[in-house]
Structure formats: C-alpha cells, structure tokens
User: What shape does this take?
Amino acid sequence: MNKPLVSVIIPAFNEEKYLDVCLSFLKKQTYKNVEIIVIDNNSTDKTAEIARKAGVVLVSEMVQGMTYSRETGFKKAKGEIIARTDADTRPPNDWIEKIIEEFDKDREIISVTGPANFYDLPNFISFLWHFTSLSVLIIDGLIMGHFPLNGPNFAVKKTALADLHPHMDNKQVHEDMDLACHLAPKGKIGLMNVTMPCSARRLKRGFYSTLFEYTVRGFRTIFLHHPLLSWNHKATYST
Assistant: This one.
C-alpha cells in the first residue's frame, strides 16, 4: 500500500495555551509518515518555543494573517499530501489515516474536508454543533457547486496547489472557502466522515458577533466566486 508523506501545517499566532496539546495528539497518529510544520505568525508568547521543544518544523511568516501563514506552510511542505488544522484542535488518532483512505478511494479527488465539533462545551451542544458544521458544508456545497473547505479539517494534494492565486485578505473572505473555490476547477473536493474537535473560544468571546461576522464573510466569499451561482462542479460525498 502506498504510504505518501503527509505534511500537517498549523498556522499559529499566540497559541501557547493550545499548541502543545494539539502536537501531542498529532504525534499519536496511527499513520506515521508525517511531518508537522508550525507557522509562527509573529507570536509574542511561547508558541515558537513550544514548537521547538516538540521537535517539529518551525517556520516564520512576518506578514500577519491566516492566509499568509497557510501559504507559507504550503510552500514549506515536502509531502505529496498537505493536511491543515488549527493549533486549538485535538486531531483523532486516525485522522491522517482516514485522509489517505479518502484519496485512495477516488483518484479524481484533489482535496477532502470534514466537519468539526467543540471539546470545551457541554456534550449536547458539541453534538449539535457537529451536525450544524456538517449541514453547512453540505448546504454550501449545493450552493457553490462544490464543497467548501473547513479550515481545521482538510487536506489537499500538493500538485493541485500549483498556479493557484487565492485571495490573501482573510478579513474579506473565508480563507478556507476561498481556497476551495480556486481548487474546484482542478478536480473533486470530497466530504469525509471525520470530525475534528476544536475549541469554542471564539464563540465564547462573542457568540452573536462571531456568528454574524462569519456569515457575512461566507456570503461574500460565495458571491465573489459565483456571481451567477452556476453549478459547474459536482460535489462528492465520501463515506
């Protein structure tokens, strides 16, 4: 069985509270051919120190922003497949293994994504959020003609990133949705049955303001790329 190198990139800005736990989960992956890359985006805390002590690849990105950090990670990655997650996640032990299985199922798939839930909210709310996250991916997939990408839980073939020119201002668009729009003409984006546990810290800081801001950016991202809402690319659901 082919066991390609998988590069896991983690953009990080002042993530000392979460990064060490995320890295500990990644080091427990059942799939072993992995490199882990932390992109330090001008952190003023111990983020870089934690990454060094963990023995992962550490790179710096001086231009502030999630998209710039992500792109730096993409360029640094050596793997045939690049997985992306956030510093506040707790990746399931078989996360990368499941990613590899999805790519092996369908050679036309160039990227895969999945839903998220919250590990720091009551179980019932986290359970509901899992289905909310999954529903958003499916509904956006129907509107856009292809699935979006969920930032803490996606992977892409490195070859598919060649000659892409995504929007770089993540204050204007969702960087993950935007990337999906640029990838879609190149191949299928699959939806996998793997849920990523994340922190609900942003929602806790301001539930309604965060929800409103995310919704506005979501619509802006969709209409920027799909002004006529044409269904040019079929969504695929991998189970």
User: Anything to note?
Assistant: The chain has one domain: 6-237. The longest strand covers residues 6-12. The CA atoms of residues 11 and 39 lie 5 Å apart.
